[in-house]
Amino acid sequence: MNPPQPRTPRTPDPAPERRILRIRGGSAWDDRGPRHAPGPVAALFDTRDRDRFCPGTLLAIGPADEIDRHEAWAHTPPEQRQTIDRPGSVLLPAFVNAHTHLDLSALGPRPPSDPADPSAFAAWLDMVRLGRPAQPDAIAWSVRLGVELSIRGGVAAVGDVAGAAGGQTNLEAWRTLADGPLLGVSEVEFFGIGRGEARGLEAATALWRAHEAGFRIDPDAGVRLGLQPHAPYSVAEPTFRALAGEAARWNASGSPALHLATHLAESLAERELIAHARGAQRTFLESLGLWDESLAAQVGRGRHPIEHMERALVSAAEGGSPFLCAHVHDCPPEWEGREPEALLGVLRRAGVSVAYCPRSSDAFASPDALGPHRYRAMLDAGVNVCLGTDSLVSCPPGTDRLSPLDEARRLHARDGTDPLTLLAMCTTRGARALGIDEDRCRWTVGGRMLGVVAAEGATLASVMGGESEVALLPTTTCC
Ligand SMILES: [Zn+2]
User: Fold this and answer.
1) Ligand 1 centre from 479 Cα, in Å?
2) Which of 9, 103, 276, 308 is deepest in the core (most CB within 10 A)?
3) C-alpha 191 to ligand 1 mean position (Å)
4) For residues 234, 162, 186 and 433, what is the CA-based torsion angle, rounded to 10 degrees?
5) 263 CA → ligand 1 middle, Å
6) Contacts of 259 (CB under 8 A, 6+ apart)
């Protein structure tokens, strides 16, 4: 199936004169469990403060017949009442996609045919590099398509990487995202390693200084700018520490916390470069003319990529800006004679959030090279693990939406992971990673949810175990 052509996504606009919205479903869940005893459920919202996909303030949730007698419903004139009925559905908080690249959506779902074959993989990388949108109009078109696919997947907030096409930092993805109805963070990507080390930090700090207001936007109310030093194999380690220092100063001045994200411990090639200064990534950096003495002194010291980043990650957390780290496929329990679980200990101490993208991880055959992803051990250790879709490019052929639910379903089918844990990874944990109030992903009376999703199914387990459709409710036809 081809992805849809992007329309200009906009904030849904149901009849504003209707003050009370009643949503009825088969059951309602959040990361704490079911929100009422078995039987049809209903939730009432005061829609006067609705915004984007937030239906308004939650007034009540409970058994449908009780809600029918609630004074806010019973005492409101019928013409000011609205009902959305989803009797065969589980009602869930809208999802948070903690790691995606909406600006690559135009390429469509085209995962590598054989990631284990170096030449096929190199051809795939070339396809992405050459095919990715680079001009502002093309980037905006691609991001709008990604927003459409996200809404179709029940997503109300994203951590979206604003890619540096051609190596240049670019705000077009942020502007487009901010024009649409999703909330979250636009993480502006930059590179800078070896001969390019100084250039990377300069570009990032110049961008930051020039757009300070964008970095202060509340991700609960708009799209905040964040910084995304791309990865330890493309940005020098001192740059990460410098950013951590800058973030601490920024945060100490009372500004909302600077959002920092990166890709970490993604592949064996990254480990080879960082620990041993060898392998395909060194060859690549040499081919770009970036390899120099300073880089040679920073890597090849037997340190795992997580150890290599430890000082920067811990210092960023101490300064109030813990990193959101995408992937973290490479986190073995034993490493070169260190204490067991030393690497997991670093992640915990650094308070990082890990955005795991299971389908992308499988598309790149990461488990074959590095073993199963250790998300459950990370969760057990107290690390905030959330789910991301990565870009549409690495999604399976035929993918026509971008939803962490599809990532959760992969984990449920493969690992039998508990549905409630998966729901938290699709909602509250992603919110925490992006600086969004976690309560916006819960049925809390008096609260304002990011949005409400109806997922066809009888129970949360059947939703996680099935392939049913989902819908972000206020955008769909009401009765
Ligand atoms: Zn990514």
Assistant:
1) 40
2) 103
3) 13
4) -40
5) 6
6) 185, 187, 215, 219, 224, 225, 226, 227, 321, 324, 434, 435
Tell me, yes or no, whether 33 and 104 share the same domain: no
Q: DSSP for 149-208?
A: HHHHTTEEEEEEEE--GGG----HHHHHHHHSS-EEEEEEEE-B-GGGHHHHHHHHHHHH
- State the number of CA atoms in the 13 A half-sphere of 182 facing the CB: 37
Rounded to the nearest angstrom, the distance between the alpha carbon of 346 and the centre of ligand 1 is: 21
189 and 278 assigned to the same domain: yes
- The tokens for 374 are 């250790």
pLDDT surpasses 50 at 479: no
Residue 264 CA to ligand 1 centre (angstroms):
10
Distance (angstroms) between ligand 1 centre and the Cα of 241 equals 21
Tell me, what's the pLDDT at 122?
77
Closest residue by Cα to residue 305 from 336, 324, 331: 331
410 shares a domain with 363:
yes
- What is the predicted pLDDT for the residue at 2? 45
Structural domain for 234, as ranges: 95-441
Query: Domain containing 377 — which CATH number?
Result: 3.20.20.140
The alpha carbon of 51 and the centre of ligand 1 are apart by a number of angstroms equal to: 29
Task: Tell me the CA–centroid distance for residue 90 and ligand 1, in Å.
Answer: 30
Model pLDDT for residues 394-446, shown as the tens digit of each residue: 999 999 999 999 999 999 999 999 999 999 999 999 999 999 999 999 999 99
- Compute, in angstroms, the gap from residue 155 CA to the centroid of ligand 1: 17
Contact partners, residue 97, CB within 8 Å, separation at least 6:
150, 153, 155, 157, 158, 159, 387, 388, 389, 402, 403, 404, 430
Dihedral-angle region of residue 244 (phi above 0 means left; psi in -120 to 50 means alpha; beta otherwise): alpha
Residue 3 lies in a domain: no
With beta carbons less than 8 A apart as the criterion, state whether 11 and 51 touch.
Answer: yes
Q: Phi and psi of 313, rounded to 5°?
A: -65, -45
- The model's pLDDT over 319-347, given as tens digits with 9 standing for 90+, comes to 999 999 999 999 999 999 999 999 999 99
